Amino acid sequence: MSEADRVPSPAAPPAVAATAPEEKKGKEPEREKLPPIVSAGASAPAGLDRGFKGQISAFSSVISTVNQKKEATENRSSPTHLVFPNIKNVRDLPPISLDVRQKQRISTDPLSSEIKAPVLPEPILPVQPKTMKDFLEDVEKAKSSGDWKTVYDFYLTTFDSFPELSAAFKKDASASFNTIEDSGINAKFVNAVYDALLNTPQDIQKTVLKGIINSLLQEWKGPRTKDDLRAYFILLQNPQFNNTSTYVIYAHLLRQTASLVEADHHFLAHWFKKLSQKRFKPLVERLLQFISLRLFPAKPEEFPPISKCSWWIPSASKVLALLNTANNLVHPPLIPYTDFYNSTLDHIDLMEEYHTWQSFGNSHRFSFCQYPFVISIAAKKIIIQRDSEQQMISIARQSLVDKVSRRQRPDMNMLFLNMKVRRTHLVSDSLDELTRKRADLKKKLKVTFVGEAGLDMGGLTKEWFLLLIRQIFHPDYGMFTYHKDSYCHWFSSFKCDNYSEFRLVGILMGLAVYNSITLDIRFPPCCYKKLLSPPIVPSDQNTPVGICSVTTDDLCQIMPELAHGLSELLSYEGNVEEDFYSTFQVFQEEFGIIKSYNLKPGGDKIPVTNQNRKEYVQLYIDFLLNKSIYKQFAAFYYGFHSVCASNALMLLRPEEVEILVCGSPELDMHALQRSTQYDGYAKTDLTIRYFWDVVLGFPLDLQKKLLHFTTGSDRVPVGGMADLNFKISKNETSTNWLPVAHTCFNQLCLPPYKSKKDLKQKLIIGISNSEGFGLE
User: Fold this and answer.
1) How confident is residue 27, by pLDDT bands cut at 50, 70 and 90?
2) How far apart are CA 571 and CA 566, in angstroms?
3) Are 509 and 519 in contact (CB under 8 A)?
């Protein structure tokens, strides 16, 4: 089963023993009993319609043993005789499920016999009350006649208990449906019932919530049945939980779902992946909103005190982890991974979360870092930057203490990683400097070009990165191969005696992340996946690094033609051995010489056949992306991690590492306009108005060229356009001149063109022909 086929456990630093939040050691405590409730007739609150506000504030008071079976039976006859108990101290009620068995890892791999839930005989199920067609007809009749009794009875019966709920929506009431690939639920029927629910009278909506409360309050003996899992699966889709007045009920549902055993989570993750995007996305948004409003409630009085419901957010986060796993089980995912980001977390103390995670891992202290998929890339950048700053300060302070202890005069330069390089020997000088100053890599970077005056206020550092990257990635240099079909670079497989320059590139990438510099590098996504394999450098030097599972999709991002050819081989319907006449061998040209490599022992004598072609393709891809470049990539890996050795890397996805290094491809020129600074111009000047009219009307490719011309990269930093510190300066020259860019300072020097047409013409010429002279 693939790596994606796992429910991600909360991420834990390797040195911390990981146990789930709230896990109880020793004998589990007995379930607390809810206090007896004295029922009192209460007028129904304003109810639960589309736009109601807090109508079920009194409804949260129904979290108790309301209306036993007898009362439910009596009330079936009429929707007008509902009696709601009045509980003033509902917020003080104990949690429903105290026997929470939070697992440190919820795996969806094939389950061992130890953790498989015992197969129980399926109980005798209630008779399926209605078909979807019957239900929809009843709803239409109720709308036209105003008599909702039949619809009321359906909802009352269906949501009365878990067995009733499962039976109502099963495709076949007599079938067991015990497989992970089919929940057995009629999804269209569930959707129809929930879509109709929000448009029914409020007593029906309250009846549904009352039934859910009764179901959640049932005493559970033994493992959950598959019908119980189906009930949780259905209830989590209930749109009523969008309303804050239902959050007390929703929280208990989340807690019970989060406390299910590993085997049950395995089923739920696979069932959720079958939902449509339209139905899946609201589940995620509902949970994110639940967490946000618990952290920053608009009306704090709506919720119990945080001390009494500290388990709300951990439970919601664990259910979100189930949905995240479900999303990763399908390709392409149901929703982008960024849809799991909770931007509310950008406003909490992230470093406290990070330090809690570092200190306690997944033990009894909850931290959002245990569930990094909810933390936005902007928030992760803050964590990495502050962690980097703390490491920089710590190392600089130690250098200062060492100097003073030896009775030497402190020098401010010792607080920085000072690079002195010659332009004519840029690569060799940079390599020598970084090798000699390996202990200073985590200090703030300052660059000096030998023979040139000037202080590095950031511009020289950026210029050093730009020049070095251009030189190293030039095809003549031979370290990387540029693939025109995919517009990216990949590691050259040529063997050499010294791989130190690959280490230099890794250090450069690490320094860029460490010093918040965006690099104009084009590596495929596979590179960043390998860079996090593993995210923390192994203590054992013999442990392979930079090796990850690769597929034809990974190869397609680098060599699309070859990937297409291998896909054709896999789908070929003829005789592979006779028609292709291939063996388990790969041929590569190295300095004009064709060399052969066996993909497996004796591969030159093993023909590729219809039976073994999958193995051949997998070995071929693994050879190209892992084995043939192992030494090159290992040097690159160690270089990067020599700078960015931090547990914060465990929070990142490969795509997020790429954004941190290279920036985001999403351009927002309106945001750039709002944040632009001016020197010699005012934003109301005619030339500036012409400029923005032209730029905002550019197609995307010209907008990218403008960004590349002025900043050295066509990508945007994680913080957005505002982080570019883009400046337009007045160039007091002839209007016959083209614009000039100072890429080291993200500055555009613009002559005062007299017409929009002239400005547009000169600007397009400048940004389209800048290669080779656009850098100053």
Assistant:
1) very low
2) 9
3) yes
pLDDT at site 129: 64
DSSP 80: T
User: CA–CA separation, 96 vs 251, rounded Å?
Assistant: 10
Q: Determine contact, residues 665/718, Cβ cutoff 8 Å.
A: no
Quote the CA–CA distance of 266 and 502 in Å, as a whole number.
42
What token pair was written down for 387? 């962690």
Report, as an integer, the average pLDDT of 750-754.
93
Question: 106-129 burial, b if ≥16 CB within 10 A, otherwise e?
Answer: bbbeeeeeeeebeeeeeeebbebe
- Contacts with 218 (C-beta within 8 Å, 6 or more apart), sequence order: 161, 162
Exposed (0-12), middle (13-18) or buried (19+): which is 502, by Cβ within 10 Å? Answer: buried
- The CA angle 140-143-148, to the nearest 5 degrees, is 100
pLDDT at 435 over 50: yes
Write down the pLDDT at residue 359: 87
Name the burial class of residue 181, with classes exposed (0-12), middle (13-18) and buried (19+) by CB atoms within 10 angstroms of its CB.
exposed
Q: Are 660 and 384 in contact (CB under 8 A)?
A: yes
629-668 b/e with 16+ CB inside 10 Å = b? bbebbbbbbbbbbbbbebbbbbbbbbebbbbbbbbbeebe
**Cβ within 8 Å of residue 712, ≥6 positions away:** 462, 466, 520, 743, 744, 775
The letter for the amino acid at 78 is S
| Amino acid letter, 45 | P
CB atoms < 10 A from the CB of 454, how many?
9
Q: What is the pTM of this model?
A: 0.77
Long-range CB contact pairs, 347-351, < 8 A, 24+: 347/296, 348/295, 350/375, 350/379, 350/382, 350/383, 350/386, 351/383, 351/386, 351/387
Round to whole Å and give the CA distance between 128 and 126: 6
DSSP secondary structure of 744-773: GGTEEEE---SSHHHHHHHHHHHHHS-TTT
Is 744 an active-site residue?
Answer: yes
Question: How many CA atoms within 13 Å lie on the side-chain side of 681?
Answer: 24
Find, among 343, 245, 237, the residue nearest to 286 by Cα.
Answer: 237
Stretch 222-240: mean pLDDT: 92
Strand pairing category for 727-730 and 740-742: unpaired
Spatial contact of 251 and 300, defined as CB atoms under 8 Å apart: no
Give the C-alpha distances (Å, rounded to integers) separating 196 from 50, 142, 151.
11, 11, 10
Catalytic pick among 309, 369, 744, 749:
744
